[in-house]
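INPUT
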Amino acid sequence: MIRFTTYSLDETHALGQRIGKSFSNAMVIALTGDLGCGKTALVQGIAKGLDISDDYYITSPTYTFINEYPGRYPLFHVDLYRVEHSDDLENIGFDEILMDDAIVAVEWADKLPKDFLKEHLHVCFETLDDTCRKITITPRGSKAVEVIDQLKSMKEIKWD
Amino acid sequence: MIVLGIESSCDETAAALVVNGSRILSSEVASQIAVHHRYGGVVPELASRKHMEAIVPVVKAAFKTSGVRYGEIGGIAVTQGPGLTGSLLVGFSFVKSFAFALNLPMVGVNHLEGHINSLFLGTNPPPFPFVALLASGGHTSIYHVRSYTEITQMGQTRDDAAGEAFDKVAKMLGLGYPGGVVIDRLARTGDPGRIVFPRTFLDKSTFDFSFSGLKTAVKRHVQKTGNKYEDQIPDIVAGFQESVVDVLSYKVIRAAKEMRCDHLALVGGVAANSRLRERVEQDAALQGLQVHIPSLDLCGDNAAMIAAAGYHYLIDGNQSDMTEDVYSRLPRF
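OUTPUT
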């Protein structure tokens, strides 16, 4: 487990970029936290770390459920905000993208049935005040642990 | 020429028959709003499977309502993107086989260009060139439109769409769905100046938008106010709406001035918002600009706009072949 405190949107974005850089395998990232806590901002950073062109804006997938972007790995940006039943996961094609060799970032992952995700990174956001966020990353599975080790080895990274 | 249009990029499965990109013979929308509402929130069992169930009945209904026979259509237009891949594929694959079976030309249309073409289905189409603001649940962008098919994006949201902000604010205040309609109505009873939320103009020279910070500001206001927020709801939504409208109106008018256009247009679901219409009309009148807005039923997702856009591609000889695929996202420009 690794814990960060970010003091601005830019810092959340920068943390995302480092997470994106650290990926050397397909990975699922489960994002949880209240509305406006910075989930999309972190994914925007991850996209940057995956060398997705600046010509793509990483916008909220709330309406479309899943947005795809080409990068060092393909990025699937998923938003389960509008999903209420586990049947819908199949309807939106969520099962299929989990089988791809890709980075899959899932907002509102707390809507997934328990233990639905096997190997993944759980990124949990807590809103401390208007701009300050506590971000806790918990790995599940050996590849996820490698990502945390990789993050800890980055010189520019400071964790709590 | 009669064109069959098909739309399935997000929640709506729709089919329409349109003559010469301007006259609607039928426009059927199998909306899933009823499904959403049953659960008291924005939501469920939409997407691909629902599109699969709806597509054949909706196409049949479009032919039945209009009395048009298959042999009378000259081509088929279908939304190719952006949207949810699985949902887009239902419409796109249907059209491939339908076009193949009837030996008709087909063309894939950008959903956003479709919204702009909704302007030519009404009684007050804008003359070229003009500037259009598209604001909906999934998109917020500004375009410079030089002809039916020459459309350049000038800017777009960097995070949330305007309509999404309406829905999320309505949900956090427990106001139900669809959020835009509820907030529009409630805001009339509130004071937009009592609670002032931030306006995110970004760099004033860009035509990009950002509504994520506004959504967060409303959320923080509600959290800080505690239970008392319930008495403030009309003022909160009026203040929120005014913030969105200020930014949208400012940017679309600046875009029209920069491109030296005398006409501007509002399209997409948020164009149905009465305060946005009123405000843009007022601001535009001061600048000597004319405003064009499609009728309410054409503001939301529909297939008539796809048929209209597709008609102009088809008469220019542009068509898609059977090897083409849908796309989820496109680069900005």
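end of record. The first helix of chain B runs from residue 33 to 38.
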